[in-house]
Specification:
Structural class: alpha+beta
Helix content: 10-25%
Largest sheet: 14 strands, mixed
Distance between the termini: 36 Å
Shape: globular
Length: 311
């Protein structure tokens, strides 16, 4: 069972700001929002080294037969500082496992929220994912589908679906971490995330495995009481916070700058339809703890890169 948990740890990408950091250093008190967020859409981004890791995703037709050419065209128009592959290549020189984690985090995600229900619709390198969570009904599910043309995955496995019970699985084990090994500290200063004032909490690891290439050193959490905590199950890590988490700064290395920043690009209160909260499904359905499902999920999340490696 340990191997499948390691795989699910690497799948912690779900994802998933005003600027690339997603917060303002100088909050504008006149524009601070004080109304409770009941329903609407949050567009989430994942950043590393100041670069948007998902910059390629929505500019490529992943079902076409020239995916590699499309990706190269997008990357060639980016500066080295904006190019996620340049950042990943640099990281891989010293830490291949961390580079692999960054690859899986090359995503964009829209959260469709209504009261205690959220559907995270994520898009990655050649795949799409629905991450559904209903806190009042205590139901959750994950749907993953590859978009690429590949013979390496059987037709039956090109879309998979699994369910879980959030109260029992704490984020479906897809994003649950044992934070008993972390010191929790509430910071005195609030931060502004797209005009929502957030409490800031730091989780710092007490002990890490010596020599491990994927230690989680610290997570900085930005939480707003105006958002229901149901959205927390859709994030890369589940943290037991009472308010809704709007931003995460994730440190895989003991350095001043975070390895990953999950932050909203936009927060739009609006009416959300029942159709926008309906997840896609696939048969047969299984549970999130099924080891076979975890291995299939990893294959789907890497399917876009298999096409890029084709000559």
């Amino acid at each position: 069972m340990k191997s499948i948990k390691n795989i699910l740890f690497l799948l912690a990408i779900l994802v998933v700001g005003c600027s690339k950091s997603g917060s303002n250093d100088s909050p504008d008190d006149q524009n601070v929002i004080k109304d409770t967020f009941k329903e609407g859409v949050i567009e989430m981004g994942i950043y590393s080294g100041g670069a948007d890791l998902g910059v390629v995703i929505d500019q490529v037709n992943w079902s076409a037969d020239n995916v590699r050419e499309q990706v190269e065209n997008v990357l060639n128009n980016l500066s080295d500082e904006e190019n996620p592959m340049k950042i990943i290549q640099k990281v891989s020189e010293n830490n291949p496992w961390l580079a692999f984690s960054l690859i899986l985090n090359m995503t964009n995600c829209d959260y469709y929220i209504k009261d205690q229900t959220v559907l995270g619709k994520a898009r990655g390198m050649g795949w799409v994912m629905d991450n559904y969570h209903n806190r009042s009904a205590d139901k959750g599910s994950v749907y993953i589908e590859t978009l690429v043309q590949t013979d390496e995955i059987s037709d039956a496995d090109k879309r998979i679906f699994a369910t879980y019970t959030p109260s029992e699985d704490l984020g479906s084990q897809l994003n649950a971490i044992d934070f008993s090994n972390f010191k929790r500290e509430q910071q005195p200063k609030k931060e502004n995330v797209l005009n929502y004032l957030c409490d800031v909490t730091t989780y710092t690891a007490v002990n890490n495995v010596p020599g491990s290439q994927l230690n989680l050193y610290k997570i900085v959490v930005y939480t707003s009481s105006l958002f229901d905590k149901t959205i927390n199950f859709t994030h890369p890590y589940y943290l037991p916070e009472d308010g809704g988490i709007l931003r995460l700064d994730i440190y895989f290395e003991n350095i001043p700058e975070p390895t990953l920043v999950m932050a909203p690009k936009s927060i739009i209160p609006r009416v959300v339809t029942s159709g926008e909260l309906t997840t896609r499904t696939a048969t047969p359905s299984t549970t999130i703890n099924d080891p076979a499902w975890g291995f299939k999920a990893l294959g789907l999340l890497m399917s876009g890169f298999s096409v890029l490696n084709e000559e």
